[in-house]
Amino acid sequence: MDILLDTHAAIWFFEGNPKMSTSAREVIGNLDNMIYISIASLWEFAIKLNTGKLVFDGGLDGFMDTIYMNEFALLEVAPEHIRATINLPIIHRDPFDRMLIAQAMVENMAIMTIDENILKYDIKIIW
User: Fold this and answer.
1) Whether pLDDT at 72 is above 90
2) Torsion of CA 10, 16, 17, 21, to 10 degrees
3) I need a surface site. Which of 2, 18, 101, 105 has the fewest CB within 10 A?
């Protein structure tokens, strides 16, 4: 299964945060699953680092190194992903989360998240 991690899910996994469910960790650890992190999440991460809303050991480079070390794939933002955001209902206003929703729809991926607003869209959610 192809799974797109929401930004918080990636951070929690990397930090070993107990807020992440055991089943979510098992899904990530299952070698039959391909785990993706969106370029949109990297952008969101960088902004939150810059504004002081987030601290991560090693900063952006440390985050990217951890992505590669875990053999996760980066999902580029493509024109069809941007087009798909136009048709999304305005349930969630966060542009980064809207992009993740659109990417999951276009690429037929599940999203790993606990974001209550993302849960309201017609996409497969894992947690």
Assistant:
1) yes
2) 80
3) 18
